[in-house]
Write a structure and sequence with these properties.
The chain has one domain (3-253): Spore Coat Polysaccharide Biosynthesis Protein SpsA, Chain A, CATH 3.90.550. 43% of the residues lie in helices and 19% in strands. The chain has 9 helices and 9 strands. The chain has helices at residues 3-9, 25-39, 56-64, 80-94, 115-123, 145-161, 179-189, 201-209, 236-253; strands at 11-18, 42-50, 69-74, 100-103, 128-132, 139-141, 175-178, 216-220, 222-224. The strands form 2 sheets. It has a 7-stranded mixed sheet with strand order 3-2-1-4-7-5-8, with helices on both faces. Helix 2 (25-39) links the parallel strand 1 (11-18) and strand 2 (42-50). The chain starts with a helix and ends with a helix.
Length: 254
């Protein structure tokens, strides 16, 4: 079997939840295509347009004419949790067990070039690989101080309450998953696998996965908020409160 044939059997499925991302999604899709071409990885993108009211959907449709993109359309905005859930379900529908599913932000703050390193770690035996702000070599550029404080505080709280070998960053949405691990989680939890509607959904996913005796790992990320057009959609206070509620509810439920 040739290398090309092997790559045809294994693909990376990239899930992009998108809500009003006209400023960065075209650039991200181009960078993603370049990164996958350079790495020799076959890939497929699932864009979940979560009720965008700008030109996001039009831009994605134009790129889908020449790139391997599947579009999931939400007529109205339903929140990050539903967008992530529907994207993961759609990606698994296209994926084989040997494939890898990656989730990342659609605002061009996550570098697609990191995917190759994450996929390699999956091939080396990890089930979940997180792009972490708390590994040596990581940098955050242009991130608002309030968001940096919230992310660091959440990291400390969850490391104390839910220590998980290999995990320091519990909230970053840039992750790679072994398809078999995700399917095991969906089999166990069903649609309740993702039942949080806000940014805390990424913590919820991780807390559920840690119950499945999986192997977690991290790679350092360079988070480029200076490339983001427009302000953050995260309401830091609301997200912090909802995430703390999730933490204590999960702890009490055992």
């Amino acid at each position: 079997m040739t290398g090309t044939e092997r790559r045809a059997r294994r693909r990376v499925h990239v899930v992009l939840p998108a809500f009003n991302e006209e400023g960065g999604i075209a650039r991200l899709l181009e960078r993603l295509d370049d990164a996958m071409d350079e790495s020799g990885l076959a890939y497929h993108v699932v864009v979940v347009d979560d009720g965008s009211t700008d030109d996001t959907l039009r831009i994605v449709r134009e790129h889908a004419e020449r790139l391997p993109i599947t579009i999931v359309e939400h007529g109205v905005n339903q929140g990050l949790g539903v967008a992530i859930r529907d994207g993961l379900i759609e990606a698994q529908r296209h994926a084989k067990d040997a494939d890898v599913i990656v989730t990342m932000d659609a605002d061009d703050t996550h570098a697609p070039g990191l995917i190759l390193r994450m996929v390699r770690m999956i091939r080396e035996g990890h089930d979940v690989v997180i792009a972490s702000r708390y590994q040596k070599g990581a940098r955050t550029i242009g991130v608002p101080r309030s968001r940096r404080f919230w992310s660091f505080s959440a990291s400390i709280v969850f490391r104390v309450m839910f220590p998980t070998p290999g995990v320091r960053d519990y909230t970053c949405g840039y992750r790679a998953y072994r398809v078999e691990a995700l399917r095991a989680a969906v089999e166990r939890y069903g649609l309740q696998f993702v039942d949080q509607d806000g940014f805390q959904c990424m913590v919820d996913i991780l807390l559920k996965l840690r119950r499945l005796d999986l192997v977690f790992g991290e790679v350092p990320i360079i988070l480029r908020y200076d490339q983001k057009e427009g302000g953050t959609k995260m309401r830091v206070g609301e997200t912090a409160w909802n995430t703390l509620r999730l933490a204590f509810r999960t702890r009490l439920s055992g």
